[in-house]
Structure prediction request, 151 residues.
Amino acid sequence: MNEEVVQLAANVVTEGWRSAVAKEGADLLGRGLWRKVQTSTRRGCDPLAAAARRLLEAKEQAHELVADALVGAPPADWAGACVAGVLRNYAKKVPIPGEEVLAISAHALRIMGIYSCAMAGILNRCRCLDDLAESMAKAKLEEVLAAGLSE
Prediction:
């Protein structure tokens, strides 16, 4: 993992941040389930990171399904293939009901994973932090981490 990202996260993930995420996590999941998240910190965030990735993959698959439905059978000629390419690219940009919920849910899982890793003292091998950092610029990462679950 990028040492600069770990240091940035360590600077943001203060005691106040942990308390805020814990409160939001308990409100979101319920106190009983949140306690289970808190007590499972020794294992790291790999299950949360994998679940977040699956949610984002589902979002991409939904766009592929819309593209396949719009394009239909691939045309044999060059002009038809060109139009099909335009339609496929357009279809991937069509908003799909629920896709925003998938992205928000993936983000929340990653923040919970970062919380778990911070509590366990293993930010340097936090898959959720790594995935979140990979998906955005460092300046934006600091802002997103600071927002916690409230975004």
Observations:
- The chain has one domain: 3-150.
- The mean pLDDT is 82.
- The CA atoms of residues 14 and 118 lie 9 Å apart.
- The chain is about 75% helix and 0% strand.
